[in-house]
Amino acid sequence: MSVNATIAVRSLSKWYGSWRALRDISLDIAGGTCTVLCGPSGSGKSTLLRCLNGLEEWQQGEVAIGGVAVGYKARELRRLRRDVGMVFQHFNLFPHLTVLDNVTLAPRIVRGRRRGESEDHAMHLLERVGVAEHAGKLSSALSGGQQQRVAIARALAMQPHVLLFDEPTSALDPESVKEVLDVMIDLARSGTTMVVVTHEMGFARRVAGRVIFMDKGSIVETGAPDEFFDCPCTDRAKAFLGDIVNR
Amino acid sequence: MATSSLVRSPVSQSPVTAARRLLAVVVANPFGTAVSLGLAYLAWTLGGRIVDWAFVEATWVASSRAECSPDGACWAFIVNRLPQFAFGFYPEAERWRAWIVLLAPPLLLALAMAPDFKGRRKVLIGGFCLYPVAAFVMLSGGVPGLQPVASDKWGGLLLTMVVGIGAFVFSFPIAILLALGRTSQLPAVRLLATGFIEFWRGMPLIAILFMSVIMLPLFLPPGVEFPRLTLAMTGITLYSAAYLAEVARGGLQAVGRGQSEAANALGFGFWATQGYIIMPQALRAVLPGIVNSAISLLKDTTYVMVVGLFDLLNIVTAALSDPNWLGLATEGYVFVGLVFWSLCFGLSQVSARLERDSERAHSRAPSGERKPQ
Q: Where is the ABC transporter domain (chain A) (predicted)?
């Protein structure tokens, strides 16, 4: 869809001390698509995702979003992050602010929007994720599923070109998973560029354009969800999918 | 009636039941009962003597020690000297200014204590931030409509208030910068902040006061002179900043890394992250520690007597040598103690109220929402 939203990763490598978290990752993601990153824990999928908006530093390789290199210069990084939203496993809402303020703070402070304008937009977004009636409450008073939906609205409020999801449903109880997934499916169908680290294979099958399977810091397999789930090519992917299904 | 006994609350039980229960407690715990009785006896005899001295035998109106009853407290001394204890040597014609400065903090605290008062935090923070500068202008004058009054005329409780609140408010921003510096990624910044904190925290306040009043002027260019009050306040402010910085650092550590990550991911810069996200949570987390520092600082202001400032304690001490009122140290110091205690108790009450507020706000259950089954 949008040219701005293409993501390019070139020979990315990252070490934690002597341990190599990412091995020579190269990847292109087209704008307007939903990409699912999966793999066993410790496979580097979250690390890769966090490199995309510079939350992690790396030692080798390059990352660019919309043709703009993700670098170390604080100002450039800040500018880039305005356009790259992120949703965290543990929501990371601001507990001292109301739900509405959580959503409006960044547009007001970072983008310099006026309060009234950003509140109108925020209410619209809260409506969309189904938590509008809780707008006046402190975010810490909400259930996990509600908090994660507010977190999605908070990311959307910046009108990002790309949305990154880092295991958005892993910290939720089973009942709440569906409410969050429904919102994400809705976003994917409306053509938002999304990169999602998740174990929710049902979600991947329904809306992902591509599934990327990682293990031990490398991309092992990548393909359309139907191909990947129905006949994974590699033994490691087969073993992983077997584990997920039998869980 | 059988039915009414069911309705009755346990508080309004009949005396017989109450006595029976008491007996059960005594039988079950004879040692505890003995200790309780012993303590009650002590409280009765000691408390009785104190009440006798402070109220029953006390003299409230007299013109000298000789007119006071020898068996009780001579409060007349305090009553006669009250204006001086409150304002020091502030000129009588201008006392109304001192009154305003003196009454503003308790009024502010009282306002903040009003039940279910929404803007509590805003009023408190705004009020106390403005107070030092407003009080300074009000007291020193020199602006249209206010005659100038030299700061060496300020004294008593007025001085205690201005020094205590002023030093605390001014030290706050310094403390926040120091705490951020000490947790900074930059080694030079960290070293500077740590050095500053350790230096000021490691020195006795009395030494700091002597240094700021006696040594600091030596380093100033000739002709530049600051009043002793300003110099002393500079010293106390830096001393307090070092302590507060450590309290604030504790708060910073209480805020999870996810908070700054979330702010960064939204495009917040360092200062915006600190100002809007981290600090509000950090300071709230260590509110009891902040109030503790404030209380401790308020009492530490009594050290200004070593550099010849007449705060409440020093002015009362000075009054004890009045030949008309000799030998009234007990009354004087009990009075000073009570005043300080009231101020500190007021502070701790406000702090408790603020903590209850934020607890209530955070524990509010999600209403109007049904947990899916």
A: 7-241
